[in-house]
Amino acid sequence: MFQSLIEIGVSQASFNTLTERLSLFSKETLIDYFSLLERMDVVFALQAFDQNTQRGFPKKARKFHLSDPFLLRVIERWMSRERRLTHAILDSHRTEAAAAACLNRRGPLYYLKAEGEIDLVQIKDRSFVPIEVKWSNQIRPNDLKQLKKYPQSVILS
């Protein structure tokens, strides 16, 4: 399961997608395992954000993260040593995962998928703050296209 989570990185995926990748057990078993790891504060999932209700869309694809950057590093090294890691984790993915792990401790956290994607959405005082995480020396105008629609948006770079 961890291998699939690391391979999809910060991309959106459904439990069906993860089940197909693993092909070891059923979707219901995967959800049970994920729920157990979630209760143990090992993993968490971000739902897509509904701007109208200011809640998540439970049936849409999610973004899966480990709850702590240290866990990501430990699992990455273990999988690398076992030769189960197909590629290195990108610094940009590691940075977004660390930001998500930190902000997830502060309250409800989602991601926004509209015309473009916004990495994180934090609920604050009955409003929401769109947050884009960039690991780059240069931010292109196209990267900000979706963020420009929200005056309270934040870029973490």
Kindly summarize this structure in a few lines.
By secondary structure, this protein is an alpha+beta fold. Helix content is 35%, strand content 26%. The protein starts with a helix and ends with a strand.
Describe the structure.
By secondary structure, the chain is α+β, with helices and mostly antiparallel strands. It is 35% helix and 26% strand. The chain has helices at 2-8, 15-22, 27-39, 69-81, 91-104, and strands spanning 12-13, 43-50, 55-57, 62-66, 109-113, 117-124, 127-133, 154-156. Strands 1, 2, 3, 4, 5, 6, 7 and 8 form an eight-stranded mixed sheet that branches. A hairpin with a 2-residue loop joins β6 (117-124) and β7 (127-133). The model has no long low-confidence stretch (mean pLDDT 87).
Structural class category: alpha+beta
Number of helices, where a helix is a run of at least 4 consecutive DSSP H or I residues:
5
Q: Distance N terminus to C terminus?
A: 30 Å
Give me the count of strands. Answer: 8
The overall pLDDT average reads 87
Share of residues in strands: 25-35%
Helix content: 25-40%
Q: What's the story with the biggest beta sheet?
A: 8 strands, mixed
What is the N-to-C succession of helices and strands? Answer: HEHHEEEHHEEEE
What's the shape? globular
Pick out its properties:
single chain; 157 residues; alpha+beta; 8-stranded mixed sheet; globular
